[in-house]
Amino acid sequence: MVCLVCTLAFATQQEVSAEAWTLRSCIDYARQHNIQVQKSQITAASYQVDLLQSKAAFFPSLNGSVSQQFSNDQVLKGNGDYRYSGTLSGSYSLNASLTVYNGGRNKIAVKQAVMEKAAQDLTTQQQQNSIELSITEAYLQILYYRESIKNNQNLVATSQAELEQAQKLLDAGNTTRSDYAQVEAEYSSAKYNLVTAQNYLDGYILQLKQLLELDPSSEFEVASFEISDEQVLQIVPSKEDVYRTALGIMPEVENSKMGISIAKLAKQTAKAGYLPTVALNASIGSSNVYNHSPSYLTQMNRNFGQTIGVTLSIPIFDNRQNKSNVQKADLDIRTSELELLDTQKTLLKTIEGLYQDVVSAQSKYQAAKDKVKSTQLSYQLVEDQYKLGATNAVTLTTQKNNYSNALQELLQAKYTAVLSLKLLNFYQGQPISL
Fold first, then answer.
1. Dihedral (C-alpha) 242, 245, 250, 256: value to the nearest 10 degrees?
2. Is CB count within 10 Å lower at the N or C end of the chain?
3. Residue 339 and residue 311: Cα distance in Å, rounded?
4. 157: burial class by Cβ within 10 Å (0-12, 13-18, 19+)?
5. What does the pLDDT look like over 143-192, one tens digit per residue?
6. Domains of the chain listed by start with CATH number
7. Cα–Cα distance between 150 and 144 in angstroms, integer?
């Protein structure tokens, strides 16, 4: 059976891995298969069991008991002597108990169990949302480093061509050894940047696979996307509108509100400790003594008895326990209110940060596009001059670095804007996708 489960899980993973993963498919898969999400769902199932248990408290309890006892006592015989005599006896009973009134604690317990189950469901949603945001960030980082690798590959190819050109100039005596060394160092730097970008790409692919709970050795391919200027330069929603919407839909906010309600119910339970408890009790039972007259059935019939009663328990002095419970409940309510306020402030801070990131990244993206054009043109002109021997390697390297930096700035602004826009839309209740 275990082998079959493992085989099915492996087959499912192979089937999922057969096609390139889109951002949405990664998110949907992780929301179901991530271990943290599954653990949260199990906890929610446990709270459902607690809810059933709290409802069962309204029903009477019924217990049966059977006991057998052997006693060895001295008894008076007919001749006036006392001798030990063993007796084997048995008793049998059914006992029932029903709580009639306990200050409403059973009703409160049901309400509290319902809320705790709902709160755990919200916690599961929070966990799923957290996974979704982490996957989105890792996925876009993969796309970013993919483009970065392409840029670095082009720069490596260009640097290699320049190195070959420098070798020719050096052989012809048209450049100095120091200029040649400068071009060679630039070629080595370009290769180093390419390797670094590839390492970052591999790292984010591994991180994404871990979020998806995939085996590290499994095949994994991220789908390719071309992000257009329209996606980067979308109209940024008002942060005030995003915040108002997020307050109504984000599970962490509702969970914090639920925490206040649960704390208030806990206070009601604490106050119920001042009230009396009324319970009904009933039992039936019989007993017998083995090897004694009359017969077993006759003894059971004669000894059969029934009892019914009411128990009233009134708290008089409890060493301040109830008062302490109420005071602690008041403090828990205040703590829950502060947690709600902290959640709201954290949410506002996150949205304000994303909004600022989008605005800044979009501005940088526009400026970076112009910078790439100008540095590319400048680099091409200097490169042509270098080929003619009209400039030195230092100038060529400087212009090339300017162009390379402009490309990286453009990429950073591009993916920062897209990521922040996706997250802002997420806080408005829009699913994340590319």
1. 110
2. N
3. 42
4. exposed
5. 999 999 999 999 899 889 888 888 888 888 777 888 888 888 989 999 99
6. 23-59+104-275+317-426 (1.20.1600.10)
7. 10
